[in-house]
Design a protein that fits this description.
It is built from nine helices and no strands. The protein has helices at residues 10-18, 22-40, 46-62, 73-92, 112-115, 120-134, 138-149, 154-161, 165-192. Helix 2 packs antiparallel against helix 3 (46-62) and helix 4 (73-92) packs parallel to helix 8 (154-161). The longest helix has 28 residues, at 165-192. The protein starts with 9 loop residues before the first helix and ends with a helix.
Length: 194
């Protein structure tokens, strides 16, 4: 077995994992669990997300010999965990389209490390941004987070959400337009109250 470090790139880990290297598999799991968990919590409850990630990695290990070399392991994992979460939510809601559900059933939150990081001013700014993000429709919110929080390309955002690339671009642009309007209204309100 080859020793892997935190600097070993995803492609090398993926190739070694496909060849049956358990330490490469473990390195991928440790590298991506928290990232995927943070993303997944924006879609579903923590228990569902944790189970979906576990199921995803079990399936990856079981089918490692038939998996291809992923062009982007990060993108592959994001898309796959989203698919697992959607499958779990559909099973829980007995076939309802989870994206049509009441937004209260799809908790949308910033990660705890983001919320509690920094000083009080940063915390207040983060809370304000979270409130603004909560104003967005769930698909726009998710597309915006995938694009800017997780640094996925538009084509990758589109594939994760199972939509066309132009639709992903439109979702992000509409989200940014809404956030811009909200920010302008807030600034005008602050100026009028002075």
């Amino acid at each position: 077995m080859k020793p892997f470090t935190e600097h070993t790139d995803d492609q090398a880990l993926w190739a070694a994992m496909r060849a049956g290297d358990e330490s490469a598999f473990e390195s991928l799991y440790n590298r991506y669990f928290q990232i995927l968990f943070s993303y997944g919590k924006k879609l579903a409850a923590e228990e569902i997300v944790s189970d979906a990630i576990q199921d995803l990695f079990i399936n990856i290990w079981r089918s490692r010999r038939t998996l291809g070399q992923a062009e982007s392991v990060r993108f592959y994992l994001f898309r796959s965990v989203r698919r697992e979460i959607v499958r779990s939510l559909k099973n829980e809601t007995r076939g309802e389209d989870w994206e049509d559900l009441d937004e209260n059933l799809l908790p949308v939150q910033m990660s705890p490390e983001t919320i509690y990081a920094g000083d009080e001013e940063t915390f207040e700014q983060t809370e304000q941004i979270r409130r603004w993000l909560d104003l967005l429709p769930p698909r726009q919110h998710e597309a915006l987070l995938l694009r800017y929080y997780h640094n996925l390309e538009y084509a990758e955002v589109a594939q994760v959400l199972n939509i066309k690339e132009q639709t992903a671009r439109n979702l992000v642009q509409k989200a940014l337009a809404i956030l811009k309007r909200v920010a302008i209204l807030l600034i005008v309100g602050l100026l009028l109250n002075q």
